[in-house]
Amino acid sequence: MTNGDRSDATFSPKRIWYQTITHFSQEGKDRLDILTLPGFPRYDNELEPISRAIINANNGGIIIFDAAGNEGDNASVFWPASVQETGDVIWIDSSDAKGSPLSFKPSPETGRWIFTLD
Questions:
Q1: pLDDT tens digit at each of 118 positions of the chain
Q2: Cα–Cα dist 89/91, whole Å
Q3: Would the pTM count as exceeding 0.85?
Q4: Backbone angles phi, psi at 20, to 5 degrees
Q5: What is the DSSP string of 11-79?
Q6: Across the chain, which distance is largest between two alpha carbons, in Å?
Q7: Backbone angles phi, psi at 54, to 5 degrees
Q8: Distance CA 58, CA 42 (A)
Q9: Which superkingdom is the protein from (predicted)?
């Protein structure tokens, strides 16, 4: 794959996200303190490397945010934001100008802390 050529049969968004998390989690000039992820509609076995990379980054002190959803259709919460048990990812949700939850987003789960910023 060269210059983002998506016609290459080896292009894989999941592989790219794994490489991105791993690269920017390592010590050195490229290391980041905060990573934001787009999320994936559902978990599958191909996401296991990303799951391990998230855990390693989080254990290294990196704060990770993930979109609760990007579909705007009241779908389920995207992975990895949907995995609240681990605490490795902070779920990003949406609200209106007054801080009220938007009607088209995934529903928050009982026990989740929710806050908005103005």
A1: 344 555 555 778 899 999 999 999 999 999 999 998 888 888 899 999 999 999 999 999 999 988 776 665 556 777 887 776 667 888 777 777 777 766 666 665 555 555 555 5
A2: 6
A3: no
A4: -65, -50
A5: --HHHHHHHHHHHHHSSSTT--SEEEE--BSS--GGGHHHHHHHHHHHHTT-EEEEES-SSSSS-PPPB
A6: 46
A7: -65, -45
A8: 21
A9: Eukaryota
